[in-house]
Amino acid sequence: MDWWLLLYSLVMRMATVLSVKHCYQCSDANIETHYGVFFINPRVIQDGNKNDVKKCDRFNVPVVECNDTCFSLNVTSLHVKGREVLPFGAAHGCSQYVLSEDVDDQTGCTKKDILLRTIPPYVVQAEYCKCNGDLCNTVNHILVPPQRTAP
Prior knowledge:
Blueprint: H1 2-18, E1 21-24, E2 26-27, H2 29-33, H3 35-38, E3 63-66, E4 70-78, E5 85-94, H4 101-104, E6 109-116, E7 122-131
Antiparallel strand pairs: 1-3, 2-5, 4-5, 4-7, 6-7
């Protein structure tokens, strides 16, 4: 009888380990600078997350365990004069405890205008995309803000 209990316990532990999901986690400097307008809580409250987020590099993206959906955040802004869309930053990670309800309750992708707490205030466009698979929030490209040239 003890042997069956031990075997059952071992199988259940293996199932738990195999069912743990992982997410890519990285963030650009602009996202970290304005973290509080994009997310509701610090990452450190997530299980096993030490909040040591690396800059997004598609060839070397850190991975974290996640008990919720993974997310990708892509933020753009509009050039004041030319109205062209400019990259602002990106972030990837585990959505557990960090996404606001209006984003967390949605499936797929959600777009929001975000008011940055700058002087003067500045609005950026954020697209949050959530996914459910292991390592589903891939870092496909790195947003590089265009270099400014003198007028």
